[in-house]
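> call design_seq(struct)
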């Protein structure tokens, strides 16, 4: 029987998912810190599509120093690090090979300190040019990855798919040991695959893309012919009770720990339902303006440049993350803008509840929220398809 750990609930306070709604917090007694995009300048811009291979990838700061830059290139579910070098003065970073790959997604994570020593982090992505009249699917999870039991195979296409049945026939997802796996279309741009129940630990899943020369729309043909696989690790499912302000962490069915949390405040509640960890960041920026929390001047209600131990749960901005700015909330009151917060320290601590949970988590782990005064998360918001019944899921196939 696994030992059960319990962190005592701390005091009570009032802030949001990242701040109390009064804007960015004062760091180091130097006044309001600049926005991370002012400190860390990344080109191409975040979210840019169709970047040409001759365009330059560059990360820089106007003053201070870059602490770290991590760039990852994803093609056909194969993730590769991009090597690069810093300038002698630490103000810029560039890749060793200046030419960008075609039909790829680039992810950049950078950490820097400005001229006053204040730390900021940025996470940006962009996709490169796909040759004319071709389509590809950006696939998750990555090849050879080890994932949690709730992982859903998801393909997002760079073009609208009109001939959904033809595309679906060209994609095969199988498992060992065998289990029935079925597809579901979310509009004409996304196709997800999953079994009826969570994967069993140890399952090896293989995805075969036979899209080359498949016509997805009139005159548009596939580019990929690729097989990749991933492995399902141990089962970890965590239950967040928004009313009790706790999270029960279960590993292979046994209670591992009960952790005090803070969830969404009454006016900014947390979604109910099953959500899946899709990304993990040791440090990231959270800006309310990017998810609809804006002041009249258009700036975010909150903007914290160094949120530690952050795990994305939805595309719309729900995270489970470390929180060092609301020390009185955990286990007693819900104060966030919709995220689930765990006690942490500035910079992230390994011996805090947030650090402990982050170190024991995988992409693909399941976080289920109950007793929140909000609706159930939509099945296409992140990898939340487990909230859809099996009959409805199977009905989403284009192959009748």
């Amino acid at each position: 029987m696994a030992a059960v750990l319990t962190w005592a609930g701390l005091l009570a306070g009032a802030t949001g998912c990242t701040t109390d709604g009064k804007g960015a917090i004062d760091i180091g007694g130097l006044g309001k810190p600049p926005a991370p995009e002012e400190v860390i300048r990344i080109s191409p811009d975040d979210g840019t599509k169709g970047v040409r291979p001759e365009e330059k990838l560059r990360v820089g700061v106007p003053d201070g120093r870059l602490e770290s830059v991590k760039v990852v290139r994803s093609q056909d579910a194969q993730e590769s690090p991009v090597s690069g070098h810093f300038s002698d003065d630490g103000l810029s970073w560039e890749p060793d090979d200046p030419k960008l790959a075609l039909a790829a997604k680039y992810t950049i994570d950078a950490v820097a300190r400005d001229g006053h020593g204040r730390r900021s982090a940025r996470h940006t992505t962009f996709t490169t040019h796909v040759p004319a009249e071709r389509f590809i699917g950006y696939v998750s999870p990555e090849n050879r990855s080890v994932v949690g039991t709730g992982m859903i195979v998801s393909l997002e296409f760079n073009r609208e798919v009109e001939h959904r049945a033809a595309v679906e026939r060209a994609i095969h997802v199988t498992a060992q040991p065998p289990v029935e796996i079925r597809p579901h279309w979310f509009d004409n741009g996304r196709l997800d695959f999953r079994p009826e129940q969570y994967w069993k630990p140890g399952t090896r899943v293989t995805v075969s893309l036979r899209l080359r020369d498949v016509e997805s729309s009139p005159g548009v043909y596939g580019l990929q012919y690729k097989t990749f696989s991933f492995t399902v690790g141990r089962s970890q499912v965590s239950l967040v009770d928004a009313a009790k302000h706790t999270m029960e962490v279960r590993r292979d069915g046994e209670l591992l720990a009960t952790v005090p949390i803070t969830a969404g405040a009454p006016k900014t509640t947390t979604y109910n339902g099953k959500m899946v960890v899709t990304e993990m960041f040791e440090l990231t920026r959270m800006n309310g303006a990017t998810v609809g929390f804006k002041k009249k001047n258009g700036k975010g209600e909150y903007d914290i440049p160094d949120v530690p131990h952050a795990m994305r749960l939805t595309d719309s901005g729900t995270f489970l993350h470390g929180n060092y700015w609301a020390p009185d909330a955990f286990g007693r009151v819900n104060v966030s803008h919709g995220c689930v917060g765990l006690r942490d320290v500035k910079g992230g601590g390994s011996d805090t509840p947030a650090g402990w949970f982050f170190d024991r988590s995988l992409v693909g782990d399941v976080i289920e929220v109950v007793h929140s005064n909000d609706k159930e998360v939509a099945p296409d918001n992140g990898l939340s398809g487990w909230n859809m019944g099996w009959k409805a899921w199977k009905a989403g196939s284009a192959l009748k």
